[in-house]
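DM from R.C. (forwarded with permission)

"hey, sorry to bug you on a friday — could you get me a structure for this? deadline for the figure draft is monday and I only need the backbone to look sensible"
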Amino acid sequence: MDKNTVTGLVLIGAVLVAFMFLNKPSEDNSKIQSEQDNTSLNQPIKNKAVVENDKVEYDNTPDNSIDSVISERITNQFNEEQSIEEQKELMEVYGLFYKAVNGEEKSLALQNDKIKLHLSTKGAKITSVDLVEKDPTDSNDTYLYRTYKAAFEDSINEPLTLFEKENSDFYISLQDVSNPGISIKSSDFYFDVIEQSDTTVVFRAYAANDTIPVIDSAKYLDFTYRLSKGKYDVDFVIDYHGIGNEISPDVDLNWRMRGLSTERLADDERMTCSVMYGYAGKSRDYISERSSDEEEIDGNLNWVAFKHKFFSSILISEDGFKSGKIGQDQMEEEDEFIRNEYTIDYTARGLPIPSRGQVNLTFFFGPNDYDLLATYGMDMKGIINLGWGIFGWVNEFLIGPIFHFIKSWGIGYGLVILLLTLTVKIIILPLTYKNYMSSAKMKVLKPEIAKINDKYEGKTDKNAAMKKQQETMALYKQTGVNPMAGCIPVVIQMPILFAVFRYFPSSLDLRHQGFLWAEDLSSFDSILELGFNIPFYGDHISLFTLLMAASTLFYTMTNSNQMTPSPQPGMPNMKVIMYMFPIMMIFFFNTYSSGLSYYYLCGNLMNMGIMWGIKKYMVDEDKIRLQIESNKKKPKKKSRFQQRMDEIAKQQQKKRG
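My reply, with the result:
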């Protein structure tokens, strides 16, 4: 080192020492600065939460220093644990909420007499829902709604869970105007709990100031959840306090869950679970069961429901969602490691909600009870699929009212179904009588119709077939018998048969209600477990299904003598079809609701009794035969249509002649 370098270093050191000495603060100035800092910390701030011993409490007193406490906590966290560069990276990704992405996740719960919500401070979201309503008829404080496994296999008194944390997600997507194109998820934030009671909780995520490493207490995002007594509703309020101009108006709500199996047969649940939704002023719509599909929202969507078989999770918006997507994904294989799960994913994503002011939404977590859902309007009762068109009307205005009226007597559901069947049979008795009278007349004419068929048997020319048809119709006309008279009553009764096919499997009242050997009328009854699976049949034997099929076969046999033979060669034989039908029912109904099979069984037994009574006391075949013979002797007046057809035939014959 040369002489000039040493001299330069000495001079630089002397200048630094002199500079430090001249700028040393006096004792008086230090005291003044300290007093100013203390005064700033004690400025009055209203309506803020106080952090004490890691517990957040709501405080309205004017003299507290919540801003300084929270600022100190966050400042220390970021100054000690993260570098400036790391903070800048977080700001670029999370914008004004970059200080809320670090924290400790805590769980809490809200409960009323109907439901229990489990929530997390990470994302301020509902992580799972339990139905905790107690059974009013059970003195042992048993839960009203339990899974089939808990109720019958394990005999555990634990509430039914609609979805779980591991298989659900809920968040809103925000965009900081200073970071366009970057989506921020509320599920990434750690919220503070600023207010909590048994039925209400307020979560808050504070926004940060870009230039100072502290939160801005006037800017925050609030999620409020509130339960009401005696309801399955959850009032959900989103409050963009002071940040409306700092985030993009394009705020989307995203909700996903995977359905949990609650019933006996998961595959049966897949037949009825789906995503349902309702537009303002329209009837409900849905994505087809057992399908993987997605729908674009087109209109004003008031609600979207993740429908389980007997329960639903519903998001309701009176203002409506104007766009977005809803869908479901039917998985191919079950995940055996997830408890009681049938693999179907429900998704509602990209549902736009306002970014300024408060957004008021409602969750519904509860049973698919027709009367309960009807109180919400917006055709939410349509979540219970009672059938389309006339079948739904029959269930809504006939089967349902009768069922609930008899149920109100407080008797067992096996007896309720029996009395319901009897009531329906009495109502349609005039149609049954008319149908039997038509069958009796056709039975009397059966020998004469057989003679006509024998006369033209083996003749295949068109003229022979036409003459055969003309002679048959002439016989009907001459005797006054209408071959279609028996079809009309049957057609009228068909809607009832198909309506109950929808009603019983979807009836919440039958869930976990036993009768005789059936422990659950909403599911299949089993008297024998096979230990192996038969394709299209199952791995068990349903006794109600066997009895129903046997009664159908016996009823068919007792009425087979009234069936006329096939009028045309090559046409299907109705007797064969009627005998095959009961066999098909064994395969089709083996895994269906035992309440439905029991209803059909009762109907068959009553039909046989009614037929016996009509035949013995109301219908005399000898009198019918005499009446037919008398009708043959009476002159028949042709209708205008017949007269016109005869004139046309005569004119054609003249032209040919």
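R.C.: lifesaver. Residues 429-455 form the longest helix (27 residues).
me: no worries. Residues 249-385 form one domain.
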